[in-house]
């Protein structure tokens, strides 16, 4: 049983306080409708992490991450961003540390060109014009947006629009990037580009939190997973540890990636049941055949 997690709900992952970006303490959130979306949440997000927050619709994932930059305020409890209480700190200030990319890019793109979209957030930070242009130039190169600079964002495909939305937040220089359902509406090529972008952002020193239903994507990119079910955290740990926890998977109605399911079926033949990707599977099969 995992109901004990519902009682104390303490994160298994506690980073060094000096390197903690977000600290969530005893968080409860109740919407005006009376829906209790979060119950007694305690969790930390540290520097240079790749964290996935997963669970079924209505489990509280998006409600949780919207507290990280002040889009939502606690009904009870405290959220600290670099030690600053979100109740007492303007969202514009929090945005310097935490950048949020909505699931639907149409909710955050509203300039007439991609280039202006990249400048918009930087202007809100009141940076000098020459610094704005330098950051825009760097972002364009990193995200390979040169063909789209004079294009209206709504003329782009959904995949390209999401890329522009991510780039516009990245340009502002937050230490933590939150990506809400980044693979929704993405085709294979768009997911491939998104994977490259996530790798590039991580290599640049950022922490990345993504909310996702895509278990293959989660297994490929996350080092740590938080599983939510019915407003509670029911697991906080590594992906290999998660995918062998059938009790947690059943609680949250989740299934491991197909490659992990295959490795579990082959475990009687010596294959590790903790395989996350094809490369690991090839390595395991070779080891067993050696």
Structure description:
It is a single chain. The chain is built from twelve helices and ten strands. Helix content is 38%, strand content 21%. By secondary structure, the chain is α/β, with parallel strands linked by helices.
Main sheet properties: 6 strands, mixed
Query: Which CATH architecture of the domain at 1-94 and 213-255 would you pick?
Result: 3-Layer(aba) Sandwich
Distance between the termini: 39 Å
CATH top-level class of the domain at 1-94 and 213-255: Alpha Beta
Strand order of the largest sheet: 6-7-8-3-9-10
| Count of DSSP H/I helices | 12
Structural descriptors:
alpha/beta, Rossmann fold, 6-stranded mixed beta sheet, 10 strands, disordered N terminus
Summarize, please:
The chain is α/β, with parallel strands linked by helices. It has 12 helices and 10 strands.
What's the helix and strand layout?
Blueprint (H helix, E strand, L loop, with lengths): L2 H6 L11 E11 L5 E11 L3 E5 L6 H5 L10 E6 L2 E2 L5 H4 L3 E4 L12 H11 L4 H15 L14 H13 L5 E5 L7 H16 L3 E5 L3 H7 L2 E6 L2 E6 L1 H5 L2 H7 L5 H8 L12 H12 L1
Parallel strand pairs: 3-8, 3-9, 6-7, 7-8
Antiparallel strand pairs: 1-2, 1-4, 4-5, 9-10
Helix pairs in contact: 4-5, 4-6, 6-7
